Structures are given as structure tokens and as C-alpha cells.
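Researcher: Following up on the earlier apo prediction. This time include the ligand. It's zinc ion, with the SMILES given after the sequence.
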Amino acid sequence: LEFRVLGTGSANPQLGVHPSAFVLTIENHLLLIDCGEGTQYQLLKYKIKPTRIKYILISHLHGDHYFGLIGLICSFNLNHRTEPLTVIGPEGLEEIILAQLKYAQSKLSFELTFLLTNPLNTENVLIESTFTVFSFPLKHRIPCTGFLITKTAPPRKVLADLLPANFAPVYYKLLKEGQDVYDELGQKWYKNSEYTQAMGPKTFAYCSDTIFDADLPKYFPNVDLLYHEATFSEEQVDRATFTFHSTAGQAAEIAKMAKAKQLIIGHFSSRYQSYSHFLKESEAIFQPTMLAEEGLNYII
Ligand SMILES: [Zn+2]
Ligand SMILES: [Zn+2]
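Model: Understood. Below is the ligand-bound prediction.
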């Protein structure tokens, strides 16, 4: 599971800073999470093949989270994309995109499907063979959801060091499938629990724009990596509350309450030129915290 940051900014444009867009790689699947203005240029810059993106998740309809979507869809069309694309987002998104396509008289070369998130309750929006996506409600000025992505547990890991060198591949396969291995007389040879180890699922939670909400951690307990917005630092806590955003310290509180393993903060306001105090503020409450940095790939 890999999380790549394409944008660290918020709504106000700032030279050299891009709005929210992230790519989550799960084995051979690529998920684009939010699609701020110019995301397609960021995909080009970081050499991410857009045709590999099968799913796009949109948290809410503030422009810094989806104004890049119509451009990306139109470029897919220009390049004669044939792979189906599923966009998962709030009510209204399908209407907006279809209106833009209608008045451009664009007929798509690929199948475009929209799935709705639920701004009031957690909802299972996608089940794939190796991962699932749940949306969960965030508290923002307009309907907004976060996403929990779970990479389902891989097959058990066989502890090969404990097995004899001539161990038959057919028995190895049985162990990997979770079975005990018997000999020809039907007597147990190798107990699965002694010769294999369970590999836990991996989880990633994305908290886009939200006011501090103590209810949030219940949606992603013990998450492996939490991304949480931190638009302001603590001296602007009133402004954060007024605009339904969070501070770095509040993001850290959420990570602490969820018993997250790591935290990444981003969506910084354009009023700041450096973010070192964001890091300090968050680390005082939760470690390890990382600042979202454009282009960086975080391994989960
Ligand atoms: Zn935003
Ligand atoms: Zn917003």
C-alpha cells in the first residue's frame, strides 16, 4: 500500500503549491483521492499513468477537491481511453460533470459510472478483490466524507525456515491456504498454526476538510496511516472553527484518539510560507507525524 501526495494546498491559490490530490496504490490498483485543479499535470509530472486509475474518490464539492476532474475526464477521452472509470463522490457531482460533458457535446470513449457517498453515515462504497472502501461523514460547511481503505489480509505467510529443505511444493501450497498437512497415513505432520503466520490487513484513512470532530476516530480505530487536514496552526484555532477546518494540534488529537500508527497532515492555508511549526505542534501530541510533501510516496 503506497500513498503519494500530489497537492498540499487549500482553497486559496498559491504559486508552486497544488490543491488536494493523492494517489493510493494497492498492488496493481490505483485510486485517485480528490482531484483539485491541475491534477492531470501533477500526474504527468510524477509519471503516473492516468489509464491505470480505475477509481476516483471525491470528498466534497469545494473546488480545491474536484475542479481538476472534468479536465482529467476530457483528457481520458482525447486519448481514447477504453477502460471503465468509476467516480465515487457526493450528490451533485454526477449532475455537474454530465452537464459539462453535455454542453461540450462530448461523447465518452469509455464507460463512466458514478457511485454516491453518504454524508450522514458510514457506507461501504466499494468492494474489490484485494481492498474495500468505506466512506464516513466529516463535519464541514457542505456535505463531505472521508474514506477508509482497507487492503484485505493477504494469504498466510509460510515460515519456510522451519520446514525441511525437501518439503514438497504441494504441501507448501496447502499450508499457505491455511490447512494442516497430513502424511499418507492421515497423521498430522505440520500444524498450520505452527508453520504459518497471519498477515493482518492494512488500513488507510483520509480525512479531508473537517472541523475537529471527536466522533471521527471510531471510523478508523488503529489505522495504519491517517491523513488529516491541518489548514491552520493553533494560533488560528478560532478561524479553523469558524471555517469548519482543523489545526495541526487537532489533527494530532484525532490520530491519538484513533491509536493511529502514523499521521500525515496537509491542506495548509496559503497564509503560511513554511510548516515547521505545524509539525512541532502535532508532534507534541502525536508521533510520528509527517508533513505532506508534494511528490513524496509514503509506504504503509
Ligand atoms: Zn479544501
Ligand atoms: Zn472544503
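Model: The chain has a mean pLDDT of 95.
Researcher: Noted. I'll compare it with the apo version next.
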